[in-house]
Amino acid sequence: MTATYPARGADLDGLVADVTRSDATLRRFLHGLPGVDQVGAEARAAALGTRSIKTTAKAFALDLAIRMVDLTTLEGQDTPGKVRALAAKAMRPDPADPTCPSVAAVCVYPDMVADVKQVLGDSGVHIAAVATAFPSGRAAMDIKLADTRDAVEAGADEIDMVIDRGAFLSGRYLQVFEEIAAVREACARPDGTSAHLKVIFETGELQTYDNVRRVSWLAMLAGAHFIKTSTGKVQPAATLPVTLVMLEAVRDFREATGRMVGVKPAGGIRTAKDAVKYLVTVNEVAGQDWLDPDWFRFGASTLLNDLLMQRTKMTTGRYSGPDYFTLD
User: Fold this and answer.
1) Is 144 one of the annotated active-site residues of the chain?
2) Residue from 89, 144, 264, 277 carrying the catalytic annotation
């Protein structure tokens, strides 16, 4: 296994079969990927974070960011009433402005999926459910698969799974690969369709950018539809340099295999200014194809309100108070 990316146009099935023959072959492949220049990645992220956009583009960026939000509540105190209210907000983020777009999805625990579905109906807002022993990822495989199937059966359109970071950090790459592949199979529905699978890395625990690149390729080879930074329960959560490395990975993976994979930074993205930094980075690193809710999401609970405040400011010329919109 050479220390380079696969050749452009590589056969994905053949590549998967080749690199997953054993832990050793998968390890050689992942450790043969080009290393990440830490200083360079952080410097580029910092430079992109200083880019400004024109006023005319800002309105578009705010609406796009709203459409990319996975409105999230993942607390032990979540109630049916709370998640139903969140679902209503997801469909009409600003009830006073019918031109305000809806968000991409509502993300909840699996036992709350049915309550969210009652509200969302066929609105087009997706239902995402965390699964596989979120947020630790430490459970027996049959429990993880049952967790996933229960969420899909309840009506989840998307499953956000967490990898076993202990397995990854100890080099048991094939175990992680096989778990992701098995969870993707568990996302299948009886009608032949499948819930989309987002794979959460918990990048704050992965220690190096090289590990972020490796786990990105590992998840994509295993069939992830999205790769996601964090659970939001560990600090640091999403950062611009980590997201940049993941965007490079999905860009290079598509160039090599022809398959497109989405990216979801989650945790710690709270302001419209932060969101615009991420959108600029998506455009500059991965390209315009990823500037779409089908391929880029924000995992957030507080970001939406700031986006709405900035949007109102552009429309009316004045800021609304922080309690003008519902607090989630």
Assistant:
1) no
2) 264
CATH topology of domain 12-316: TIM Barrel (3.20.20)
Q: For the segment 4-62, what is each residue's pLDDT rounded down to a tens digit?
A: 788 888 889 999 999 999 999 999 999 999 999 999 999 999 999 998 888 879 999 99
Q: Which one is catalytic: 70, 115, 157, 160?
A: 160
- Closest by CA to 307, choosing from 97, 85, 158, 119, is 97
Task: Give bridge partners of residue 299 from the DSSP assignment.
Answer: 70, 266
Active-site residue (options: 89, 144, 228, 277): 228
| Torsion over CA: 35, 278, 321, 100 (sign) | negative
Cα→Cα distances 212→118, 184, 217, 228, Å: 37, 21, 9, 11
289 is catalytic: no
82 among known catalytic residues:
no
Sign, CA dihedral 42-70-12-147, equals positive
Strands 158-162 and 196-200: parallel
- The reported pTM is 0.94
pLDDT at 323 over 80: no
Q: Where are the domains of the chain?
A: 12-316
Rounded-to-integer distance, Cα 169 and Cα 30, Å: 13
Distance (Å, whole) CA 212 – CA 230: 12
pLDDT (0 to 100) of residue 3: 47
pLDDT at 56: 79
User: Which residues lie below 8 Å from residue 24, measured CB to CB, with a gap of 6+?
Assistant: none
Q: Determine which helix (DSSP H) or strand (DSSP E) holds 39, and give its type and residue range.
A: helix 38-48
